[in-house]
Amino acid sequence: MDLAVALYIVPTPIGNLADISSRAIEVLNNVALIACEDTRHSGKLLSHFGIETRKTALHDHNERDRADWIIQKLSNGEPVALISDAGTPLISDPGYHLVTAVRAAGYNVIPLPGPCAAITALSASGLPSDRFSFEGFLPSKEKGRLDKLSALKEDPRTLIFYESPHRIVHSLESILAALGEERQIVMAREVTKTFETFLSGPVSEVLETVKNDPNQQRGEIVLMCHGYRNDAEDSGIPTEVVNTLKILVEELPLKKAAAIAGQIYGIKKNALYKYGLEIGL
Q1: What is the pLDDT of residues 76-111, one digit of tens each?
Q2: Staple 67 to which of 35, 101, 149, 168, CB 3.0 to 4.6 Å?
Q3: 24: left (phi over 0), alpha (psi -120 to 50) or beta
Q4: Model's pTM, two decimal places?
Q5: How many other CB atoms are there within 10 angstroms of residue 208's CB atom?
């Protein structure tokens, strides 16, 4: 098979080897060079499928320097593939600088569709998938995690994070502290693998389960958080009405405040009174 001279972005399985596509195998067999995040790790996958194409390492520490060398290969008419340890390259993996440099040099970048832990987990999470934000790994230090999560606290989109097993408890504790104990989350672990599990519920409950079960502190993890929900909007009560009700309650009993706010905005006072009780006014 003759491939066009280009950089091919090739996803690899995130756990189940059967998830590799026939097109991915074909491309990896026919490029002149495969750039791997870790040649030893990828060597096992390539050996499994009988792929003997030459490999080179491309990771966070050498990507910028290696990019020029790969562009030279392309200029010699040699197609190149990029793979990461698992999943789709560039999604919390190296490749951004290489792709940018290759495109700037005037060569095509051809992506293949395939496995991605974030999308695979989201599809089975039961959380809203019409709008979401992939945030990669949370910072390793507590202050950084809290700052990051606090900035996302009122983001209405489903939030997706990757996490490592030795930090999962700390990250769940930070989510609880920054987003509140009732924030609904889903923790997907070992997606597509033998011990795949999904834990869902308020973050406080998921945290307790993970703390009490060491098995939940192993493997690859995708954390997904429900986006911010404005209780007033969910109840159908405009924000400006709620703000007025809150001001009135500072000087009046809730029942009277609800009656006045209802009269101002043409909303039933009983609905406002009930809402005020629900949010603790």
Answers
A1: 999 999 999 999 999 999 999 999 999 999 999 999
A2: 101
A3: alpha
A4: 0.81
A5: 13
